[in-house]
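Thread: quick sanity check before group meeting

JM: Hey all, I'm pulling together slides for Thursday and realized we never actually wrote out the predicted structure for the chain we discussed last week. Dropping the sequence here so it's in one place. If anyone has concerns about the input, flag it before I start.
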Amino acid sequence: MERGKLKKKHKGIYSGGGHREGREKNINMAQPEKHYKVFFLAVIAWLVAICVAEIPSCHPRHKAAVVKMDEASLTVNNELDAEMVVSWLSDHCYQVRLTFTAVSITHTHTCRHFPPVLQCVYQPLGVVPAGPGPGLPSSVDFTVGTQHGITLQLNSSLELCTVHYHFWEHGNYSLWVKNLNDSSVVNCSMITDTETVNSYLPIMVAFLLFTGLAILSAIGATVMGLDAVKNLMFRLGNSMETERLINSDLGFPCRTVETATDTILPGPATPSRRLRSLDTFRGLSLVIMVFVNYGGGRYWFFRHESWNGLTVADLVFPWFVFIMGTSISLSVSSALRCGLSRFSLFTKAVWRSVQLFLIGLLIINPNYCQGPLSWDSLRIPGVLQRLAFSYLVVVSLDLCVAWNSLDNLPVDAWWYSAREFLLYWPAWLCVVVLETVWLCLTFLLPVPDCPSGYLGPGGIGDMGQYPNCTGGAAGYVDRWLLGENHIYQTPSSRVIYKSHLPFDPEGVLGSINSVLMAFLGLQAGKILLHYKDQHSSIMARFLIWSLVLGIISAVLTKCSLNEGFIPINKNLWSLSYVTTLACFALLLLVLIYYTVDVKRWWSGAPFYYPGMNSILVYVGHEVLEEYFPFRWRMADSQSHAEHLTQNLLATSCWVLISFLLHRKNIFWKI
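JM (edit): ok, ran it. Output follows.
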């Protein structure tokens, strides 16, 4: 969550799917070599994170101890003969439009601004007394945020000036307010007093190091794929196996030795090859989710957006829901081909949904941060709870329309060219009905003291006209149905918009659109089923669906952040949010499918391993978050470099754990 709040500082006082196939064991050394390579890469990833910690997080600067992470020091100097009120407004506030001209001379910025058109209320920063005499300034120090640009408004009896500026972390700035030759003209000049910190340097270095690691891994895989290297490894493997057999208890009467010919004979028939791209996609989403949940180095773009818009943190959960829908399609089809009844599959889905819901409710509930779980303030919605609901609804829809076999479809039928869509029209009809319910409730439901169809953050947004309308109908339904004490108490809108009402981003109305997200993933699975091994057809249809969803998003948002019919909003899980993220998911899936399953340029490592054990990794990272080695006391808690190091190491731990569990063939399924 971004530190958008600006705090006054007085001198001397500081403020602060499918079933898994068994692996065949043989004496071929290629498989162990892959495991050793992945283990080696995991160790290097730890070293990379440690290297990031060594990056200097600050430079010698004036007043370095005054400010914290994502803050800067601002001294306002008033030479006027009247006291001055300083107010501020974040550029990230809802529907901000700034129009200004600026003249920059080295480190001095003289700004002349036209009045901005704003949809948020200015927040008081403090009062600067009048100057004690001509040419003698009165000075007051403030702490300002650095994550986004801000607009400073200086008022006396009238508005004196408005200054827009983007401060940099740990910088020291001076704002001089004085009269020019004409006493009726006020000049406001911003001066940079000391060198600032490049807070993005640690993450840039980490990115370059991990990119280099990926390149080295690719080169190593290419070398290991050479015939000469393969033959060498095979000969070494045979010699090692021979030595092991000689030194073992060959005379034990019950011992049998597998001959060399046994390893090359065809094994029993196995089910169709599991698509590694799906597990890789799931694992990529999960790894990013773990990283951002652990803090993401405390960078604002690794935290959820305050209201409208997208950050990296807003991408991963919808992608996880999407790939869950894809896995549902493949697993249900496989189970029906094996002869399982639809009723038995439905009962298993119900039981799995109940388990997911209870794990989310009772094991990883955020209320544990406040002490023992209290039923009076138990948060009912949550990530696993939403997954459980979406899973149950989408499985039920698929069981109603899925075909037992896709091998005998009439090729000459008029619907054959669009069979992956038209064969399942009843399920699509149900989804359309659900979306109609969402649209009607969102835009037509009367909400006390709020305009119909309100999608804003409340608080100081919309000029503070609707302070108790956070989330509109979505927030109202949650508060009425679940109660204020049983939903999320500290939504991301509190930072910038000062909203005080509880609001849950995993609430009731948003769950309808999460069903749509999972169902779009189910549609991707239908494409994989109907065009099995037809790679060009699969990728072409993924791209067509991505284009269609992208066009829908463009229409809904008018290609803007706040001006559209339905803005992109993670808190609301708005319709445009779902179509946009599904568009991105299909594009990413095409890329991973092509590189992993078609060309096999990439094995999917290391993301493949957490993707195979997703429930264990997600629950484990939540439950063990506060334990070593996932968290420890930092020497400098105001350093992005230290936070980034800790979060990278914690995430790498879970990748390593999932790899080791994969080697032992241990998977947690519910």
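AS: nice. The mean pLDDT is 81. The first helix runs from residue 30 to 53.
JM: adding both to the slides.
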